[in-house]
Design a protein that fits this description.
Largest sheet: 5 strands, antiparallel
Number of domains: 3
Shape: globular
Number of strands: 20
Order of helices and strands: EEHEEEEEHHEEEEEHHEEHEEHEEEHE
Radius of gyration: 20 Å
Length: about 350
């Protein structure tokens, strides 16, 4: 049964930056089967539509004049078990970290490096979330979505999703039209670990662990993230506010000639990814506070709301950070979260 919508809804608690904003209507979605009727009704009325999960990757720069569909669907289903491989479908509204913890508890391995990432499962393919050497696409089987433009259900394979660095088809051709309802993962019951990143290796070494299990990696990732990143429930933030810039080989060589100590990571296509946090820190922004908008004291990539910052406060700070990095390094930083009403 379709739940009643909330009129003139307060969105402060629906975004992890806790920015003040309102929506004309907030429509809970507890059953994906309701989406065709809900979206048809909105289209008939010509009402703007926004799909919201955990609100961890969005900046409300203004009130939203239409209906926000709040995805609250739940469910985890084992689809296929073959040898040491499993395919598991997860509803879009499931909290991402809870799903990772559940998979680990059931002996389904592969997602441990993505522990403690905020948001919901349905948002994960949009950004192709990644951390500590693992990306969602590494374990994606398929995505189910409702196409509001063509009024049909889509089943997209991992290849169909065209995943890149913090990118996918859902941010391009299907932006504004595909509502993800279910994500299926390919995992393994055979313990496999990835601990290539220095922070992860250091944490495991500090725990005296030479041969880590998936549980060890999960625990270490959680510890590293908690040490470096603020809890949105305590200090408003949207995680990494800027993408790590990816430069062509020639531009990267020029930057490294001037700044040989800049942390960087070669990609298979010859491009080079640079650490945005390092660039921002070198410009002196870590820990800076302007009113209630600030840069986190332990992680320069995270912008925070100390209590009553407005979107204008936060976006003004972000723009000044971008300008200073461009002046010093000649590098353009791109915001990672979706910015509405800019």
């Amino acid at each position: 049964m379709i739940q009643p919508a909330i009129s003139d809804a307060d969105l402060r608690d629906c975004n992890t930056l806790h920015l003040p904003a309102r929506a004309a209507r907030l429509q809970p979605v507890d059953d994906a089967a309701d989406l065709p009727a809900l979206t048809d009704d909105l289209q008939r009325r010509g009402e703007p539509l926004l799909v919201l999960g955990g609100g961890s990757n969005i900046v409300f720069g203004a009130d939203f004049p239409g209906t926000v569909l709040h995805m609250r669907t739940r469910g985890i289903e084992l689809l296929v078990r073959s040898g040491d491989s499993v395919t598991v479908a997860v509803a879009a509204g499931e909290p991402w970290h809870d799903w990772v913890a559940c998979a680990l508890a059931r002996g389904w391995h592969g997602l441990e490096n993505l522990a403690l990432i905020p948001g919901t499962v349905g948002a994960a393919p949009v950004q192709n979330i990644g951390a500590y050497g693992v990306e969602l696409i590494d374990h994606l089987d398929h995505v189910v979505a409702w196409d509001t433009a063509d009024r049909r259900w889509l089943r997209l394979s991992a290849a169909d999703c065209r995943a890149g660095y913090r990118d996918s088809i859902f941010k391009n051709e299907l932006a504004g039209r595909a509502i993800i309802t279910r994500v299926a993962f390919r995992l393994t019951t055979r313990p496999e670990v990835r601990c290539d990143y220095a922070d992860l290796r250091r944490e495991l070494a500090a725990r005296g662990i030479a041969e880590p299990t998936p549980q060890d990696v999960f625990d270490a990732v959680c510890a590293v993230r908690r040490a470096k990143l603020p809890d949105p429930a305590v200090l408003g933030n949207a995680g990494s506010f800027f993408r790590n810039p990816v430069l062509p080989a020639a531009a990267a060589a020029q930057l490294l000639e001037a700044h040989p100590d800049a942390p960087h990571y070669p990609a298979a296509d010859g491009s080079i990814k640079f650490a945005a946090a390092w660039l921002i820190d070198q410009c002196g922004w870590k820990g800076i506070r302007r009113g209630d908008a600030g840069v986190h004291e332990r992680q320069a990539l995270v912008l925070v709301n100390h209590g009553n910052a407005s979107a204008a406060d936060l976006l003004g700070l972000a723009a000044d950070i971008q300008a200073s990095v461009r002046r010093r390094f000649g590098v353009a930083l791109e915001p990672e979260p979706l910015i509405l009403g800019r």
